[in-house]
Amino acid sequence: MKPFEIFLAALGIIVLTAILMAFPTMWLWNWLMPDIFGLPKIHLYQAMGINFLSGILFRPNINVKKN
């Protein structure tokens, strides 16, 4: 396999994983948030953005020093 083909395969796997992780976020948001809080429904790309943002905001802090 050529390096470019490996890169494309890895990129495809990353995109597919992001889409598969965004579907539950989108479905749960569209099921709960409009009825509870009156918020608008979201699309797949917005759910991907929410997953990305929550990954940044809620990343565990691993820089713990023990004395």
Describe it for me?
This protein is an all-alpha fold and 67 residues long. The protein has a domain at 16-57. The chain is 73% helix and 0% strand. The protein has two helices and no strands. It has helices at residues 3-37, 44-57. Helix 1 crosses helix 2. The longest helix has 35 residues, at 3-37. The N and C termini lie far apart (49 Å). 3% of the residues are buried. The mean pLDDT is 93.
Rough outline: flat
Low-confidence stretches: none
Tally the helices.
Answer: 2
Give the termini distance in whole angstroms: 49 Å
Give the beta-strand count.
0
C-alpha-based Rg, rounded: 17 Å
Mean pLDDT: 93
How much helical structure, as a percent, in the residues?
over 70%
SSE run? HH
SS class: mainly alpha
Q: Approximately what portion of the residues adopt beta-strand conformation?
A: under 5%
* Most strands sheet: none
Please name the defining characteristics of this protein.
single chain; 67 residues; mainly alpha; 2 helices; 73% helix; flat
Task: Provide a quick synopsis of the model.
Helix 1 packs across helix 2 (44-57). This protein has helices at 3-37, 44-57.
